[in-house]
Amino acid sequence: MDLNYPAALLLPILIPILLGGGLFKIDDERTRNTYVFRVVTITSFLVFAVNLWGAADPLILGRFGAKMAIAFKVDGLSRLFSSMAAILWPLSTVYAFEYMKHEGNEKSFYSFYTVSYGVTLAIAYSANFLTIYLFHELLTLATLPLVIHKMDQEAFAAGRKYIYYSISGAALIFICLVFIVNYGDTLDFRLGGVFSGEIVAEHKNLLLQAFFIAFIGIGVKAALFPFHGWLPSAAVAPTTVTALIHAVAVVKAGTFAAMRLTYYIFGAEVLLGTWAQQTVMAMTLITILYGSARAWYTSHLKLRLAYSTVSHLSYVLFGVTLMTPEGLAAAMTYMLAHGFIKITLFFCCGAVNIMTFQYDVKDMEGLGRYMPITFAVFTIAALALAGLPLTAGFAAKLQLLIAAAHNGGLPGMAGMTVIFISTLLTTAYVFSIIKMAYFPESGGIFAMFVDAAPTLRDPGLNITIPLRILAFMVVFIGLTSRPLLEWITLVSRGLL
Hints:
single chain, 496 residues, mainly alpha, two-stranded antiparallel ribbon, 22 helices, 73% helix, globular
């Protein structure tokens, strides 16, 4: 199919959704792994092809009245989100080939895992608010079986919480959808907003209420405090699932939708300086501090990373709530950087779990000696999360601080202060793990067992190769951030 035709957009969306269901019929492990890898890599290839050479015109699948339609389109923001998914999903697939041997029920996992890829891409390429809303809820259904993969009491409890939170958020977004249908010029994403000057003047407070309700609804997916409870609970899922949820699928889809809602539906100029902006910004700053503090006080490694995600997602949301082109550019940059950093940290966590069956931070003591690749990669990603120069985390955090400084006034100063405090907490809770791994007080817990220590090692190549690639990407993005930031700046100003 010629990529200049809008219909080519359907290929990366439909291929993983349709072919993912076929995995239930494949029993042989090697055949299944080959099938999954081919579907995922072909999909990623098509994503990059569409992003580079695809048509600029939207693809409309069906209309429901004058304003509502299911439609897809390629623009700068969709290119960023879809490209991130297209890089991380194949790496996660290779990782899963080894990790999921320890979890079982692989047919079900790979089926919903592959379908979730297509749904995530549908969110990335959504051309209007109705389409992104529908696929957001479909993503909930596609990822629920992944969350409850272990099928035990704890997994079912996490799944129920995930559904309850998601349905509540969807209900709030639906109220806003009805408002946009009635008062907006269109549901199509349009930088600057879809409301006429007359509507803004006559119904300003109602418009602000609709935005606030929808932001909270989307904030559920993005783990905005106090609606974050489902995310730490979802840590019961296999680490491959947790990593994707935290790095690219569910929560990043939430931050992506927040950008669309704020800048492409309501318009930053309409919201700037209003009570709605001040309220949602305050909520993001509270979430940043809360998540960082909980991560510091949590000793379970996977939960510490989960609360870290709660905090750092609101770095992205804070950039969104600045309501400036600089804020949007900073939010996009941080979304990308955090995706690569956090999936790397979770993959390292999973490597430790399957090799040691240990989950507490204190149990990491001395493991740097026995698992050198895992903890070298963990250290690089942890330093990037803390904002070490020449890494993706530094470049993203710097853009966020610059955007906050340009915003000026109390909101900008409050944001810079909160980010500084959160950075100190982040440094503390990641360095405590690094210190435990490399500088044990007693030689490490495994040194006490003569039989265990010699056999303790890094996992196989299916895990360590993705770890090496991700560590390289975390540094590479930091070293080559200038052209990336220039491109993102053009996107934030509507020039791409």
